[in-house]
Design goal:
By secondary structure, the chain is α+β, with helices and mostly antiparallel strands. 30% of the residues lie in helices and 28% in strands.
């Protein structure tokens, strides 16, 4: 049996505080996997108590509702399932490319390859894109149990030339092409020459677009930056936004981008030995995840900030 957890002041300082649909979806999905009970699970709740039972393999269909983020949901589900030595198959309905969360392409092209380096195997198929505010995206996910987690040792690497993926749905292909052109031109101006360009129109039930730039190798680096189209936001601005962030990451000489760093933390206390990695910038999410991991697992960690703004993170496993 697991240990009951009570969390208070949930997202207390956000404009829309408390639980959102994707948080509720994640809690319900994990609860169904471990026969858990919970209290106060509703949108806007600032406190919840979760009483987990025994994890078990399962096949789940989950509709987050509207455009709740599927990628944020999977950030909770993948560690929970794989670290519990079980497997799960899921069909999730919701938002694939929405604000304040990684795009689906960032998940498949950056996050999942980094997970595989640690020994985490999750396979994903996007059946349909989902954008704000309608959602309706469909993603099939298969998470295999992790046999043994490997510690992360990644403080330097040679950056491969980046690739770009620009997509749109329920919009003319010219939208994706304009995003691509603006992205490519900005990177060229910075002396960065992408090697692969993909422009696609994909199925959805409402209009939307996104762009991803990424530079990865199977042993690192894992660097990516994305941006999402919005009503009234020129396609060129979407492309430049992603390109500007990517160029900052690419020239930082850190093999882990600022957003990926915190997503790796939940696994590291369970790997055998010490993990050490370099991030382009320390974010509040990274600090929070390290702190929470230390509370739950008693692991020890350290953040050594460099003069150039990068940082080396050490995590000593349990």
């Amino acid at each position: 049996m697991g240990i009951p957890v009570e969390i208070v002041n949930i997202r207390a300082k956000r404009v829309n505080p408390g639980l959102r649909p994707q948080h509720i979806g994640a809690i319900k999905a994990i609860a169904s996997l471990c026969n858990a009970t919970f209290d106060n699970l509703e949108i806007g709740a600032d406190k919840i108590r979760f009483n987990p039972g025994k994890m078990q393999p399962a096949s789940i269909k989950l509709d987050i509702g509207s455009a709740g983020s599927i990628t944020l949901l999977l950030q909770a589900l993948i560690p929970s399932v794989s670290l519990s030595k079980i497997g799960a198959e899921l069909e999730i309905i919701g938002g694939t490319d929405v604000r304040w969360s990684p795009t689906m392409n960032y998940l498949t092209q950056v996050i999942l390859p980094a997970y595989r380096l640690l020994g985490i195997d999750a396979q994903l198929q996007v059946k349909r894109r989902g954008y704000y505010p309608v959602g309706g995206g469909i993603v099939n996910v298969k998470i295999r149990p992790s046999k043994e987690l490997r510690p992360l040792n990644l403080v330097s690497s040679k950056n491969p030339l980046p690739s770009i993926i620009s997509i749109c749905s329920k919009l003319p292909k010219s939208i994706a092409e304009r995003q691509m052109k603006a992205t490519r031109n900005y990177l060229f101006d910075q002396g960065i020459k992408p090697r692969i360009f993909e422009t696609r129109v994909e199925d959805s039930i409402s209009p939307g677009s996104s762009v991803l730039i990424y530079s990865i190798d199977e042993k690192g680096p894992f660097i990516g930056a994305d941006a999402i189209g919005e009503k009234g936001k020129p396609s060129e601005e979407v492309g430049r936004e992603a390109a500007q962030l990517f160029s900052e990451e690419y020239v930082s000489n850190a093999p882990i981008d600022r957003h990926l760093g915190d997503m790796l933390v939940p696994f590291l206390p369970f790997a055998k030995g010490e993990s050490k990695f370099k991030v382009s910038r320390v974010t509040q999410h990274l600090i929070t995840n390290l702190y929470v991991a230390s509370i739950f697992t008693k692991c020890q960690y350290n953040i050594d900030k460099m003069p150039d703004g990068t940082a080396i993170v050490n995590v000593n496993s349990i």
